[in-house]
Amino acid sequence: MILWIAIIVVILIAAGFLLEREIYFYEGVHLGPRVQGWLYDRWAKKYDADKQASQARDAEVIVRPLLDALTGIPAPLVLDVATGTGRFPSALLGEAGFGGHVIALDISRGMLELAAQKLASRRAAVTLMHTASMPLPFPDATFDAVSCFEALEVMPAMEAPLAELYRLLRPGGILVTSRGTEESGRKAKVKSAEQFTALLQKTGFENVEIQKWWKLFDFVRARKPGRLVPAGKRALADALKCPRCGKVEWAGQADGPLRCGACGSEVPVSAEKIVLYPS
Ligand SMILES: [Zn+2]
Question: Residues 6 or more apart from 216 whose CB is under 8 A from it?
């Protein structure tokens, strides 16, 4: 009897340890997008407080290098994948030199609701969208720039998401992302600067630059080969594929759901003006 109790206690401790490691260390990456989205919803409130120290330098370290690379593209269309509480759109729209539009995605509605509050005065320049599925619902070569910060390490593998970001960029388009540092402790997920550069090059990117950012992440900028001719697309309706028929043909509506002009399908929009793309 005592032996059985001891065995059960050991099993419970081991399960607790594994679950804690999965949730707090890997941020639920192995539990699927629904559980991961739910975890981020729970963390949303204290998320910004945790990140404050590193956010102080966002304009200088992660926004300026993108704007410099987009010189000559006055109104770029930017996709921000895993936007969280809208950190990157906030920093980008805070810069006088940016006259474009940002489509910001996340798997957590809780995070997006905080982003909606944070970006309330700038909603004309940013679209927030909830989606949990890959591939992302946009045609090839849609965006002038794509960003994805502090997120590749918590995806099941980096290769597929990087290939997807590459697909979505226009020729000559700019990728800005991050590399988890050796100090971040996620050993299984960390790639050395050399490995990360090689992975980006294998994906097709060129001009890969890695710079110090903060303790847990380096800033990374790379380019898709080609000459960047502006997309001239300015809003979600110019870029989003219909979930049913795949066409980019949205009927204009000020508020309420988006309606596909080709097949009549609707994509709901929340009270906070978050587009709820079915996944
Ligand atoms: Zn349709």
Answer: 54, 150, 180, 181, 183, 184
Domain harbouring 163, CATH code: 3.40.50.150
pTM of structure:
0.86
266-267 β-sheet, strand order = 250-251, 258-260, 266-267
Query: Distances in Å between the alpha carbon of 121 and those of 116, 117, 144, 248?
Result: 9, 9, 24, 28
Per the structure, how many domains does the chain have?
A: 1
**Residue 130 Cα to ligand 1 middle (Å):** 19
Report the 10 Å Cβ neighbour count for 37.
20
**Quick check: is 6 in a domain?**
no
Q: Could you read off the pLDDT of 50-90 as tens digits, one per residue?
A: 666 667 788 888 999 999 999 989 899 999 999 999 999 99
Mean of pLDDT over the chain: 89
Protein residues within 5 Å, CB atom, of ion ligand 1: 242, 244-245, 260, 262-263, 265
Answer whether residue 58 is part of any domain. Answer: yes
